[in-house]
Amino acid sequence: MITCGFIITRYILRVQDIDYKLKTITVRSGKGAKDRITTFPSSITPFLEEHLSKVRHIHENDLAQGYGEVYMPYALIRKYAKGAKEWAWQYVFPSTTMNLYPCPRTGGHGVPSPLDDLDC
Predict the structure, then answer these.
(1) How many other CB atoms are there within 10 angstroms of residue 36's CB atom?
(2) Mind listing the pLDDT tens digit for each residue in 26-36?
(3) From the CB of residue 68, how many other CB atoms can be counted at a distance below 10 Å?
(4) Whole-structure pTM over 0.85, yes or no?
(5) Alpha carbon 29 to chain centroid distance?
(6) Which of 16, 63, 75, 120 has the least CB density, counted as fewest CB within 10 Å?
(7) Residue 84 carries which DSSP code?
């Protein structure tokens, strides 16, 4: 899927990467392992908010069942011990399947990357 000038299936977008005020999306670790910022039109804001509302509901249900963790990049899991369960770190487009095997790094269970190429 191509939108806002980049292919979203190639990148992992997290909730905190969307800035509604500036109408921007921060694409982390893009080409050349650099972060990039792209804009999005105001017309998609209601659709994006509706989508994230559904994702948040799923996330809250996952947390109630003892799941809902996401992969935290680099050493951030030590800095933000509970970050893997926080809403801001959740994927905008999460995988449709639950990872029922514990992450070897954290021991937690959660939603795998939408790209399914991470080890947690």
Answers:
(1) 15
(2) 988 777 778 88
(3) 23
(4) no
(5) 13
(6) 75
(7) G
Q: CA dist 91 to 11, 79, 105, 114, Å?
A: 10, 19, 19, 8
Sequence-ordered list of residues with C-beta below 8 angstroms from that of 95, at least 6 positions apart, any chain: 111, 112, 113, 114, 116
The torsion angles phi and psi of 14, rounded to 5 degrees, stand at -110, 160
Whole-angstrom distance, CA of residue 88 vs CA of residue 48 = 15
Side chain identity at residue 63, one-letter code: L
**Alpha carbon distance 93, 36 (integer Å):** 18
Sign of CA dihedral 51, 53, 59, 62: negative
Return the domain boundaries, the chain.
2-89
The share of the chain scoring above pLDDT 70, in percent, equals 72
Token couple for 34: 């650099």
Low-confidence ranges of the chain (pLDDT < 70): 1-11, 99-120
Q: Do 101 and 108 form a contact (C-beta atoms < 8 A)?
A: no
Please give the single-letter amino acid code of residue 36: R
The token pair that represents 1 in the structure block: 């899927």
Q: Which residues contact 86 (CB under 8 A, 6 or more apart)?
A: 80
